[in-house]
Amino acid sequence: MSTSSSSAPITEPDLEHRLATPDQHTIDALRALDGDVLILGAGGKMGPTLARMARRAIADRGRRVIAVSRFSDPQAAAMLEATGVDVIRADLSDPHAVAALPDAANVLWLAGQKFGTTGDPVGTWTQNVVASVHAAERYAGARMVCFSTGNVYGRTPVAHGGSQEDEALVPDGEYAASTIGRERAFESVARRTGSPLLLYRLFYACDLRYGVVTELARRVLAEEPIDLATGWVNVIWQGDANRLALRALGVAASPPVALNVTGPMVRVRELAECLGRHAGVTPVCVGTEQADALVANVHRLHTLLPYTPLPLDTLCAWAVAWVRQGGRLLSKPTKFEVRDGRF
């Protein structure tokens, strides 16, 4: 794709279209699988575009793509139904509601709670662990992708090159501990039943309305200071993350496999400077890089699911264009700078 901001999505329909467009690898991966695709927790940031991408990728309309959520945003549900996705409204923390859901051969679990964890630890464990147990038991035998997070690792020395999937998990705070609990719940059922499972440890997806790159773009354009204490991150265009999630169904395995899903490690200063070049603004950077950060090694990703990512320069150009022209922003900060595990 061009690195010019002239190719940037300007309207939300254009952005949504790009986020929901499958590539040929995704089409081939889904068509190689049998059965319906069920997305649990489909009402959040990624779920709607992921569901529409799955619907577009599967040519056989006899195969259902089913999106399940409470759908507090009626517009999100209506948009899915308009594109041929079957919508079911359900509370996934209610075991009776989960038991009543339709069977499916391919299941993606996106539900969970991050922000507000500090003030609602019981709700966090309910959403991240208890609800996961219900879903894992209900869909034992299905091919499953369980969304997780890089927070399961905790911060590691940057010189180490990023956390790898087989390293010990060291939770930092309630959120990280509960997401490890989520993984363990799915893994326990998968190992007992022989179900193929992939633990999808996603680091910082960006869709222009939210994400690390968008947050930094807003600060650069406003000439606000950017603290470099958390000096390194991994970021990935959400369209790429959606495609990889659907392809991950094809590499789910028994015993389960964990997978870091993100782009390569990049300095926050370098991101700010790239955004500044596209904005015509010199970023204001303050503070000193610390020796550790929440960062990932992505060697296994490129071995299991090789792909060509959206160039980081393009993502920076798009983010500047989106913020500058007043594109809608979600009130969902990543809090990537948080260093004490409190969200």
Concise overview:
The protein is α/β, with parallel strands linked by helices and 343 residues long. Helices cover 38% and strands 16% of the residues.
* End-to-end separation: 35 Å
Q: What is the number of domains?
A: 2
- Reading the helices and strands in chain order gives HHEHEHEHEHEEHEEHEEEHEEHEEHH
Main sheet properties: 7 strands, parallel
Task: Return the average pLDDT rounded to an integer.
Answer: 93
CA-based gyration radius:
19 Å
| The CATH homology group name of the largest domain | NAD(P)-binding Rossmann-like Domain
Quickly give the CATH architecture of the largest domain: 3-Layer(aba) Sandwich
Give, in spatial order, the strands making up the sheet with the most strands.
3-2-1-4-5-7-12
Low-confidence stretches: none
Q: What characteristic shape results from the CA principal axes?
A: globular
User: Which fold name fills CATH's third level, the topology of the largest domain?
Assistant: Rossmann fold
**Number of H- or I-type helical stretches:** 12
Q: Into which percentage range does the β-strand content fall?
A: 15-25%
Number of strands: 15
Structural class: alpha/beta
CATH level 1 class label of the largest domain: Alpha Beta
In percent, how helical is the residue content?
Answer: 25-40%
